[in-house]
Design a protein that fits this description.
The structure is a homodimer of 145-residue chains. With 145 residues, chain A is an alpha/beta fold. Chain A has a single domain, classed as Rossmann fold. In chain A, 42% of the residues lie in helices and 17% in strands. The first copy, chain A, has four helices and five strands. Chain A has a five-stranded parallel sheet. In chain A, strand 1, helix 1 and strand 2 form a beta-alpha-beta unit. In chain A, helix 3 runs parallel beside helix 4. The longest helix of chain A is centred in the middle third of the chain and has 28 residues. Chain A is globular and about 50 Å long. Chain A starts with 6 loop residues before the first strand and ends with a strand. Chains A and B meet through helix 1, helix 4 and strand 5 of A and helix 1, helix 4 and strand 5 of B. Strand 5 of chain A pairs antiparallel with strand 5 of chain B. Chains A, B: Pfam families: Usp. Chains A, B: Keywords: Coiled coil. Chains A, B: This is UspA domain-containing protein. Chains A, B: InterPro entries: Rossmann-like_a/b/a_fold, Universal_stress_UspA, UspA.
Chain lengths: 145, 145
């Protein structure tokens, strides 16, 4: 496939759904020379009547959360012996960010989790997965428990 | 995962979409002890004012088409060195048949193609893929060109 291995885009956040999707990919799909691109979309906030100090505190918290997330996935990448990986943070809607980065990187696969569970699963897939499945130009692996 | 290897359900028909999905799985996901279950849903017909001879002829044609399909996939399974596979023909809607068999077999993955192409792809995924993604209890690999 792609020169230097397949390119695999995986959307990650703090949820267990993202982690399970990553694990399923790593245990079932991962090949030695795969290049993994972890895409993260920062949460968005509305600041109404907030002081600069409060805003600064929140920004620090966001940075801290992102660092924790990166460290968590760095450890997972190491545990699964992934040689080449990068962490991309892109603002905007998660689904759009994942599809845009997959196109830019000419990805061979997108891995996405789903929040759909229990009875709800039958009708509700999760807007991120749904967007990705309908807009991606490459194959998509939809993971669930 | 599953005893004796992962169980992978793949929906197949005469289309190139199904074949490309099978190829993507085989080239990117297949492991030596995977058990492949190929699910086929026969087309349905309405007989209005048809003679027994015409019906018999049509049935023979359907059987012949199914045989050609089976032979094609037997060859592909052989080419990819798949050890364990079976061919299941189940009447009904293709999506429902695939999900039902995946549940019965406790599949670890469902592989499905999509008919969505060009501009239409952005809104139209194909009813079979859409049903499978929303109803499957296991991960789903959605393949496209």
């Amino acid at each position: 496939m792609a020169e230097g291995g397949r390119k695999v885009v995986i959307g990650v956040d703090e949820s267990s759904f993202a982690e399970e999707a990553f694990n399923f990919y790593a245990e079932n799909f991962l090949k030695e020379d795969d290049v993994i691109i972890l895409v993260h979309t920062p949460e968005r906030y509305n600041f109404v009547d907030a002081s600069p100090a409060v805003i600064q505190e929140l920004l620090n918290e966001i940075k801290k959360k992102l660092k924790v997330l990166e460290e968590k996935y760095q450890e997972k990448l190491k545990a699964y012996n992934v040689k080449t990986a990068k962490f991309v943070s892109k603002e905007g809607e998660a689904g759009e960010a994942i599809v845009a980065i997959a196109e830019r990187e000419k990805a061979n696969l997108i891995v996405t989790g789903t929040r759909g569970m229990g009875k709800l699963r039958r009708t509700f897939l999760g807007s991120v997965s749904d967007y990705v499945i309908h807009h991606a130009k490459c194959p998509v692996l939809v993971c669930r428990k």
